[in-house]
Design a protein that fits this description.
This protein has 7 helices and 10 strands. By secondary structure, the chain is α/β, with parallel strands linked by helices. Bound molecules: adenosine-5'-triphosphate and magnesium ion (MG).
Length: about 260
């Protein structure tokens, strides 16, 4: 039984009404190291509307993390166009990109990426201090975000004093604290045991129910099954998108409609 389900949702920052949160057109990404070139993404076109819960799947090396880095403005496409909440990120300066990343996107990674010397609330408030929010307000919002993920009684604990599942919940609180339009998670359950995975999935579903747009990368079919939409990536391309096959039978054939 999870004790942390009742929450006070703070509304996510709304995207301009008509535009999807994510609108990628023919996005390519080529990494160059020395004489070697790797085409990590080759013409990805993808739209994700506000409030969707999307799982990205695909083999190792297929380009999932590269895609997430672009979605989160941690990196920019080599070719193609990316509109985030209607804004063309390709035209922005480095400073403007950092600002967008901070304001619109919350990240959760497989390795939690918490600062070990800082308490839970100090880790959670970091995105707010970059955004110039005052100290008292930062503390209030960090504690509220920790409350939201069920860690209201762990605000002064350091990461080393928390379980893996609790550390990941701190990371989710940090992702939420600035009320981003988009939550991006790269294998957030990859380092968790099955009980903590179940809790984490319940938490993402709760965030989605409260209106968050969630894009989650996973290798686990069980995790993907909880999302409303599954996008499969292979060799830097989108191989399939359950949103496209919703009204026409895909390669798996028989009675997919019966699943719902
Ligand atoms: N910074 C980089 N420099 C050069 N090549 C890179 C870089 N990052 C990723 N790549 C290459 O791009 C391709 C896609 O990598 P990516 O990390 O996106 O895969 P992935 O689908 O996330 O894999 P995994 O499931 O193992 O995490 C790989 O061939 C990888 O070696
Ligand atoms: Mg990856």
């Amino acid at each position: 039984m999870t004790l942390w389900l009742p929450v006070r949702p703070e509304p996510a920052e709304p995207a301009p009404a008509a535009s999807p949160v994510i609108d990628l057109s023919e996005v390519g990404k080529t990494y160059r190291s020395g004489s070697l070139q790797v085409e990590a993404l080759r013409g990805v076109t993808l739209r994700i509307e506000a409030g969707e819960y999307v799982a990205i799947m695909g083999p190792s090396g297929s380009g999932k993390s590269t895609l997430m880095h672009i979605l989160g403005c941690l990196d920019v496409p080599t070719t193609g166009r990316y509109l985030l909440a209607g804004e063309d990120v390709g035209t922005l300066t480095e400073a403007a990109l950092a600002e967008i990343r901070n304001r619109r996107v919350g990240f959760v990674f497989q390795q939690f990426n918490l600062l070990p010397a800082l308490t839970a609330w100090r880790n959670v408030e970091l995105p707010l201090s970059y955004a110039g929010v005052g100290r008292d307000e930062r503390r209030r919002r960090a504690v509220a975000a920790l409350d939201r993920v069920g860690l209201g009684d762990r605000v002064e604990h350091r990461p080393g004093e928390l379980s893996g599942g609790q550390q990941q919940r701190v990371a989710v609180a940090r992702a939420l604290v600035a009320n981003p339009a988009l939550i991006l998670a790269d294998e957030p359950t990859g380092n968790l045991d099955s009980a903590a995975t179940t809790d984490m999935l319940a938490l993402f579903e709760q965030l989605h129910d409260q209106g968050a747009t969630v894009v989650l990368i996973t290798h686990e079919a069980e995790v993907a099954a909880r999302a409303g939409r599954v996008v499969r990536v292979r060799d830097g391309r989108i191989q399939s998108d359950s949103a496209d096959s919703a009204d026409s039978s895909d390669s798996s054939g028989s009675s997919a409609a019966a699943e719902r």
